[in-house]
Amino acid sequence: MRLKAQRILVQLIVLLSFIVPAQAETQPDWNSFIDGVRVEASAQGISQATLNAALNDIQPIDRVIELDRRQPEGTITFAEYMERRMPPALIAEARRNYDEHLPLLISVSEIYGVDPEAVIALWGHETRFGSYTGGFDVIAALATLAWDPRRSDFFRRELMHALKILDEGHITKEKMVGSWAGAMGQSQFMPSSFMGYAVDWDKDGRRDIWTTRGDVFASASNYLASYGWELDEPWGAPVNLPAGMGASQSGHDSPQPLQAWLDAGVTFMGAAPAIAADEPTTLAMPAGEGGPAYLVFSNYRVILRWNRSDYFAMSVVRLADEIVTR
Ligand SMILES: [Ca+2]
What separation in Å is there between the alpha carbon of 308 and the centre of ligand 1? Predict the structure, then answer.
């Protein structure tokens, strides 16, 4: 009996000796992790003053880990999603914001070639026109996710970009707020998107997607333009499918000319959109088999580069339509 207990104890110790170093290897303690970030950022040329301001009193945020572990809402239907995302109050607010900011939107559109209603629709869906930008300290949220082993490489790169943004003086640490996953400001750009696409529209030396409207609109427009937005082109339209065609033909990886879909027997439910017969076209069926079907064009797929979800893209193009169709 005593021998057996000893054996179990030995096994337990052996087991622990495997578990404990393995854990330590994938996740250092918080302070060592932050020291490592400091060394790497410093090697990338980020100033000590910025690193002190950003990292001296930083603590991990438990809530960020909780949100990251949360199971995706798999049960919400397309119809429920659209109903939730497009309440009449949001549509009214979108129209009001469009009217209010139209001179600025037109100036931005003249430079970037992106339709103002698409910019307002994205802005409305992302942050309710700038009113909900997320209350998380971006540096602390990204550091927490970079420290957590699940997607540490991705978030460590984003953290380095975020430190660089602070270092360049675009925003102060206190005002650098965003979502729990580090999507920042009124356009909800990840730091890497900020680096690639954020614009200093008002030429004050700062790319301020937190508080400067022009910078927000121009940054979102620059992002869409970079992925090939085409001014004044329709996003797509609802269609009837011929027998034998369905969800297995939906998806956005292999566009075919619009004419090929029409030749296969697809018909528009309303008037045919004004677009060339050779326009690269894909089939969107956000609700899956038996649900509504849409032939969609290049601009729709540009929205998917912002967020790879048919639900999201549909909510943006529909809101844009509501803004200009009154
Ligand atoms: Ca600016």
Answer: 28
273 Cα–ligand 1 center, Å: 38
> Residue 76 domain-assigned?
no
C-alpha of residue 230 to centroid of ligand 1, in Å: 25
| Two structure tokens written together for 127 | 């942050």
Angle value at C-alpha 65, between 50 and 55, nearest 5 degrees: 15
| 307 lies in some domain | no
**CA 220 to centroid of ligand 1, rounded, Å:** 14
Quote the ligand 1 centre to 205 CA distance (angstroms): 6
Using only C-alpha atoms, the chain has a radius of gyration, in whole angstroms, of 24
> What's the structural domain count of the chain?
2
Residues β-bridged to residue 280: 257
Distance 112 CA to ligand 1 centre (A): 16
- Give pTM, 2 decimals: 0.88
Domain extent, residue 276, equals 236-296
Provide the residue-wise pLDDT of the chain in tens; the chain has 326 residues. 455 555 555 555 455 555 544 444 567 899 999 999 999 999 999 999 999 999 999 999 999 999 999 866 667 899 999 999 999 999 999 999 999 999 999 999 999 999 999 999 999 999 999 999 899 999 999 999 999 999 999 999 999 999 999 999 999 999 999 999 999 999 999 999 999 999 999 999 999 999 999 999 999 999 999 999 999 999 999 999 999 999 999 999 999 999 999 999 999 999 999 999 999 999 999 999 999 999 999 999 999 999 999 999 999 999 999 999 98
Is residue 197 a part of any domain in this protein? no
Residues ≥6 apart with Cβ < 8 Å to 95: 322, 323, 326
- Separation of 206 CA from ligand 1 center, angstroms? 4
